[in-house]
Amino acid sequence: MKLQPSASVSKKYLNIDVSEIESLIRPFSFIKQEFEPLYVELNSKNGNLKKMLIRDLKLDECSKLLKLIRNRYLNANDFDEVKDFYDIVGARVYAELLSWYRKRVKDPYNFVGICNGDLIAYANGRLLNENINISLHTIAFEQGYRAGAVLYYVKCYYCFECLHQKEFWSTFESYYGWQNWGLRMALPSYPWPDYQHELGGSRIFCLTSEYWHQYVKSYLSEMYGITLIKKVPSEILEKNSSFNISII
User: Fold this and answer.
1) 67 is in which domain, residue-wise?
2) What sign has the CA pseudo-torsion 243, 246, 247, 248?
3) Which of the residues in the chain have pLDDT under 70?
4) Distance CA 110, CA 104 (A)
């Protein structure tokens, strides 16, 4: 779009430093809250025990996780053979990680679940404002340990126990995710399409602070017998200070 200036100008063309443009394009983060690492003890169906550390994903670890998502979910040989919506989940998670790495998303958070240096789960979201927390995705890379359920619960914990927000908004691409969290947590939904989740305009399943404290806070222990442990031994922190992606 071009419009003629309404006054005479000394310079017809301007050179702009891209660092000045970046300040207009980049969405700055406003809500700051450190997430203190936690750990849980997980039992598989065959009786194996794992101690999973839950911590923030580091920015310099992003490239490894991008590689995992790309190789595991986005390189399918047959488009029609993809199951459980992992193609769209993988594509969206890849874009969300990349937007965080390239600083194109406001107030994101990224949690990883690591056992003995092996990445087994990932979850992310972002903060819409001081009151509303938006859940984006939760992925378990190793099945049978309830790692995905734990990471989703930790996002709720972060919302209500760390940030003291009022609402946690979710939507679900897969039937499995809706059953595990939407149905089993008995999450009500806002009237649709008046209210839409930012993930494609889907329904918003909303967990409120009141409902969390009255009922859902005990979900992890009641459903799976799992408890978040706040005092993480230094041995667990050291073992999981980094992670590998041998599970591709």
Assistant:
1) 33-239
2) positive
3) 76-81, 246-248
4) 15
